[in-house]
Design a protein that fits this description.
Blueprint: H1 2-21, H2 28-41, H3 45-62, H4 70-82, E1 90-92, E2 99-101, H5 103-111, E3 121-124, H6 134-144, E4 147-148, H7 149-152, E5 153-158, E6 163-168, H8 170-176, H9 180-190, E7 196-200, E8 210-214, E9 221-222, E10 231-232, H10 233-247, E11 249-251, E12 258-264, E13 267-273, H11 277-280, E14 292-293, H12 296-303, H13 305-322, H14 329-340, H15 360-366, H16 369-379, H17 388-394, H18 414-424
Antiparallel strand pairs: 1-2, 3-13, 3-14, 4-11, 5-6, 6-8, 7-8, 9-10, 12-13
Helix pairs in contact: 1-2, 4-14, 5-13, 12-13, 13-14, 15-16, 15-17
Length: 425
């Protein structure tokens, strides 16, 4: 083991030396990746030198020049392909019954930092021990998907007796892995006991019904001052009880409407309509290291801002790739860095990054010009003209590229005089 560690360190040092000879400096992650690949392929010293030199040359070409306007280039590189994106909102995401927002609407969601996506979705992976067991995955999916009373029982009203009758269906109970006791517990907790009373109904066994009775009768009729038709208050309460019963949740994770199972390669994966990352990760059997969601804000709340940054890059890259558009990932990384560099997720717009610039003229150039200028005048703000937009507005060179360099000529300096004499001779 110590010998292997020493060999790896020696190889890493060799890689850094070759890169230095080529005039570049590799980041630690690239050095580590090269070391692992060279060790795995068992390259000779000569082959190692050629390979590292080739990587160093490509790395040097990819480096950004000093004072390069990377923000404008990133905006152009993302914006131009964005004009070629489709406007369709929904797409079948591998499963025929499930839709997910793609294309330009999804890209706008990301840069606008929407707290809730228009079509929240999760990809739930299962622990290695269970991922090939269809029955085990089905049980986990049932724990994730929300089950309400109408999913496992019929709901009817008996107007004459002023009651709502809930009749469990034995087959549906078995399919969902729910007992009559689970249903009774959910009804007991979900029914408003101030207005209604839960009583046993007719039948026997698992199919024995429940009856929700009015607890107390209100005035039989009420009439408005304008002689509107008579309104039966008990009947309105009966409808209220029926609607309450339909919305009672028996099991599942709040926010997850459906959970569908799909076989991918050597394992089963659960796709959900709706998202609740925090609660899903608490379910036994779920692989927390790979399970993810398309809701960037949920990732931010559960894992933090660094994970949210990675999610922004991944989601934007996938959205563009699905449209057949190739955008260098570094442009997307730059946008994600700007959105998350203050510890939270900020939108790119007047309610986020553009609206909070220190330059008055830059804010005014983006949106609501008059309001920004008026507020700045009232509060006595000053603009130091350090950015691009404000310098263009006042007609000055921008502080990028050649505009960021100042040339100073010092007449009479010894080196200047000596050079001039040599040129004259």
């Amino acid at each position: 083991m110590p010998e292997e560690k020493g060999a790896r360190e020696t190889l890493a040092t060799r890689i850094e030396e070759i890169a230095k000879d080529e005039g570049v400096r590799f980041p630690p992650s690239l050095t580590s990746e090269l070391r692992e690949k060279i060790s795995r392929l068992r390259l000779t010293p000569a082959e190692t030198t050629r390979a590292v030199r080739a990587v160093a040359q490509r790395f040097a070409k990819a480096e950004v020049d000093a004072h390069e306007s990377v923000g404008i280039i990133a905006a152009q590189s993302i914006g131009e392909p964005g004009t070629q994106m489709t406007l369709r909102t929904f797409h079948y995401a591998g499963v025929a019954e499930m839709n997910v927002t793609l294309g330009l609407p999804r890209l706008i969601e990301l840069v606008d930092a929407r707290r809730v996506p228009s079509t929240p979705m999760m990809t739930v992976y299962i622990d290695p021990k269970l991922r090939k067991d269809r029955d085990a995955v089905q049980k986990i999916a049932l724990q994730i998907e929300v089950t309400t009373v109408p999913d496992i029982a019929t709901i009817g009203t008996v107007v004459e007796e002023l009651k709502v009758v809930i009749t469990p269906q034995a087959a549906l109970l078995k399919a969902r892995g729910i007992t009559r006791a689970d249903l009774e517990r959910a009804l007991t907790e979900g029914v408003d006991t101030r207005l209604f009373e839960l009583r046993p109904g007719s039948g026997s066994g698992e199919s024995r019904s429940f009856a929700i009775h009015l607890k107390e009768r209100a005035e039989p009729t009420t009439r408005s001052k304008k002689d509107e038709p008579v309104e039966e208050m008990p009947f309105r309460k009966l409808l209220l009880a029926s609607e309450e019963a339909k919305g009672i949740q028996i099991q599942g994770v709040p926010g997850i409407k459906r959970a569908l199972i799909r076989r991918e390669k050597e394992e089963y994966v659960i796709y959900t309509e709706g998202s609740n990352l925090e609660k899903v990760l608490e379910i036994p059997g779920v692989d927390g290291a790979r399970t993810t969601t398309n809701s960037v804000f949920e990732i931010y709340r559960v894992y933090g801002v660094e994970a949210a940054r990675v999610a922004l890059v991944r989601e934007a890259n996938r959205t563009l790739a699905e449209q057949g558009l190739g955008v260098d990932i570094r442009h997307l990384m730059l946008v994600s860095d700007v959105m998350t560099n203050e510890g939270d997720i900020r939108a790119i717009g007047r309610h986020g990054i553009s609206g909070k610039k220190t330059s008055v003229l830059a804010r005014a150039a983006f949106e609501i010009t008059a309001a920004h200028l008026l507020h700045a005048a009232i509060t006595g703000e000053t603009d130091e003209l350090k950015g691009v937009a404000e310098n263009i507005i006042v007609g000055q060179p921008i502080t990028l590229g050649t505009g960021a360099v100042n040339l100073v000529y010092r007449p009479g300096h010894p080196e200047t005089v000596e050079r001039s004499s040599e040129e004259a001779a």
